[in-house]
Structure prediction request, 614 residues.
Amino acid sequence: MAVSERTTGTPQPIGFSRSTLGRVGLVLRWIALLIAVVLFLVPFYLILRNALSTEQDITAPDWTLFPSHLQWSNITELFNDTTVPMARALFNSAVVAILGTAGQLLLASMAGYGLARIPYRHADKIFYAIVATLMIPAAVTFIPSFIVVSSLGWVSSLRGLIIPTLFSGFAAFLFRQYFLGFPRELEEAARVDGAGYFGVFWRIVVPNSLPFFAALAAITFIGNWNSFLWPLVIGQDSSSWTIQVAMSTFITAQTINIHELFMAVAVSILPLVLIFAFLQRYLIQGVTQSGIKD
Amino acid sequence: MSAPAKASADPAAPGERQGTRRRRHKGIAGNALWFWIFVGPFVVGLLIFSYLPIIWSLVLSFFEAYNTATPSKFVGLRNYVDMLTDHNFLSSLGTFTIFAVFIVPLTFVLALALALLVNQVKIARAFFRSVFFLPTACSYVVASLIWKLSIFNGVRFGLANTVLGWFGIENIAWLSTVDPPWYWIPLVTVRLWLQLGFYMILFIAGLQRISPTLYEAAYVDGAKPGWQVFRYITLPQLRATSVAVLILNLIAAYQAFDEFYNLVGNVNYARPPLVYLYSISLGSIQDLGHGSAGALILAVIIMIVTLLQNRIFGFGKAGD
Prediction:
């Protein structure tokens, strides 16, 4: 696990050189770093600036760094606009992201545990059948999946948005790898006390694996909240739009003002910014765990 | 990130298995039952939502299937031939190729540069890492919206044109100018902004796995700090990470959809494969036969490229 980064920082090559050249390099590096910081933060600044501006401020020919006054009423304007089902879209996104994440973790963790710990003759074959799905590029499957989901009559429904996304072969794979490394002694102790697989899993394994669950949950939640292609395919009427589909629809439409749209953006990224603020440690673990498959 | 030591040192396994059997009174059958209780729901879902769609799609690709998922007219390989000779499909593959040529090397170099910069600062490192990682919180829709309506909107109040205006440069219609193809600038920068932080995190993790003793040894051996150390220590040590970054990035680029759809829409000059497949199979005419054939062709291309990349870079051989 990640040891506190301050202690593991590699000795920097610049640390060895005390020459003027080294010092110039150091200054250049700091300049590069600060320019990068500004470039990365500009879009966030634009969200806030536009979300709290009047339309005149945004479209004025002369660029202003700050709006002439902060128009907080843009929030109420957004939610009172009957042409934009923003509240409904936020609700849909919340349901999709929460149930999708919970369902995916539940299914994948149980499958991963079964594959890692329950001896069964055909376990290997099942495992290979799951890993094989990792070979199929995810986005290419939207047409085939649409065919199945439309046959089930799930188009434009929350079921259609959530259920097909629950079965992640990659998540099951990660859980299996993780549970293979889970200390067996803990499970043994519970088993001696008479617990079966179910009891061991829920009372010992899960409570002792919460950081791993949190890491995968944070990534899955963000992925679900920001997902666009599948909700676009499934959300064929506005009652089933997620927030991403709703915002996308109004990028080109004339029915919404720019300041309103940017207020929608600000509201839509709020949950994720909170996750970043409070769960960043888990998030970074999740990225490093799922980014490199080994 | 895992603790593999436990799994290998495993003399207790047979005993544990017998113990389970004794308590459960059902032996192997009990284990099989529990295995299916744990794994069954997942496997059933995978069959319905992964395997069934692929098989169904494979079948559909041999049929004429307009607005129906249960077609009756078998056309053999015609859908495949149509797609492989379809000018629009081929040009969408061309669009992807140009996109990949820009995005893959740029992402690699810039993400590595950010990782090196962040890893070298001694103060406020967590702050810098967070700033570069934060765009990961935004969706492609959100970023496209900012890019299209506030930075590259092509009119006077857009940020890009405002900045160029300071230098006396005329307004540029970023997203609709085909000659020169200015639209690539928003399309590439939006993805860079969104994904650099993610790959930077992977590189930082890789950098922190490099043993400090290697750098000390290089110093003792008289390697010049800076480029020489980077070239002969850092870069080779990052091999596994680099390969992972390249592969993930290329696969993601093949599946580009969100920013193209939201920034330029279904236009013939910048239409990647997924936008084209979306438009023919889920647009006004739902041509699921050609759509399925195109999706399968694309899937095969991606798999071949992935395998080739693995072969070329020897993925898995060079653990770090």
In short: Chain A touches chain B through 122 residues (CB under 8 Å).
